[in-house]
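W.,

You were right to be curious about this one. When I first looked at the sequence I had no strong expectations either way, so I just let the prediction run and decided to look at it fresh. Below is the sequence, 162 residues in total, followed by the output.
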Amino acid sequence: MKEEIREIMLTNEKLLSEFACKSAEAIKLNSEEQDIRPVFFRDIDKIIHSQSYTRYIDKTQVFAFINNDHITHRVLHVQLVAKEARTIGRALRLNEDLIEAIALGHDVGHAPFGHAGEKFLDKIARREKIGYFCHNAQSVKMLKDLDNLNITVQTLDRYFIT
């Protein structure tokens, strides 16, 4: 029964473009027991239940000194990014689960104050000769090392593109 449900969940992958990354092509850093969910679908679940994602909840996209109900919170931003990315992916017949996993985790490594904070930390890191700060690389570190999640290489790799 379990295998039948898994096959049903993978049925849509047969319709994907030749350029789409299929679940069978997923690379895991550590082995794990399979369940009925495709591997990139599991990445989504791991990310949305992670401490890093949970920290999005009350963080805003911008810093303001006044109360403003119209300032977007980071969790809403990543959900909107995921929705738009899935729409584009569906039109191109790409793997929507992989796309959603990438979108949901893409900002977990952001410093306070967004891109301005990232530039500030990068400047300090370079001045002190301890490397650099990049929120995309920090996203990988947060999910892989701090949250200790076994996320696929394909999902983690995409954080280095933006």
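Here's what jumped out at me. The two ends are 41 Å apart (CA to CA). And, maybe more interesting for your project: Residues 37-160 form a domain with the Hypothetical protein af1432 fold (CATH 1.10.3210.10).

Coffee later to discuss?

I.
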